[in-house]
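Readers outside the structure-tokenisation community will struggle with the description of the input data as it stands. For illustration, here is how one protein appears when written out as sequence plus structure tokens:
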Amino acid sequence: MDADQRLAPHRHSEFWFGDGNIVFRASNTLFCVHRGVLVRHSPALEAILAMPSGYDTDGTEQLPIVLHQISEEDFTYFTYFLSWVYHISSVPPPPEEQLLVTILKVSHLWMISNSTKFAIDGLENLTLQPTRRLELAQLYSIPQWIAPAIHEIIPMSLVNTTNTEAAQMGFKVYIIIAWAKEVIERERQGISCLPTLTPCFTIFQLLSFRCKEAWSGFWWKKVAHAILHPTNPLPLTQTLQLIIEAPLPDGMNVACRQAMIDAMIELDGLEVEERIIEGVIRAVTLHFSSL
């Protein structure tokens, strides 16, 4: 028996409604609320409360329903939200992360779809770290948050990852992302060091000597520099745009440059980074669904 269970419970100072008809105990606090309000949008909770307990006084102050997975603070926030929804209170809940996450937690637990949507919509308007969004996506089944979070996390330096961020990702996801970053870095280094982009080698060989020299110099000085930039590396998918927008390299004619651009477009070799990220998204989604 924990400390809360040993102490005599006390009524909540605000959420003990005189006309309430069901009593819950969260931590060491009693809440007397309206059963109809709680079950109106939660068939799951309605089914739980309908199960016979064997006690006539179940759900009363003498024998409150104990909320084992919900703290006093959680239920206070959630009751505050419900009071506003059903016009018991005229003060709307502030759009704060802690309150919205609490609404999401309780709504997910009791399968209340409309308040789940309210919480998700509210959280989407806040600036949350991608690792935090990924954590919430796993905890409360929000698959649409996985891909955007992964796209933000992949460019981040793992060296600067805090313990909190690592914990939010979880060990399995951290390993998946670390592996993907290693593979991406190898691909970027390989592409940077090969001005012909190996699949385009045949086209490159057909260029004049002067065009080859000009293309190689342009690649090393402009393209490789951007791809390998230590703090703001160019995404591989933007490499073609960089080449197209750059001035024509000295010594290279328009036809030669266009031949290389056409070969790169046809061979689709610069999409490798995005394909790796898509694989990460699939792996993380599969992992979350298995939990």
Q: What stands out?
A: The longest strand covers residues 10-16.
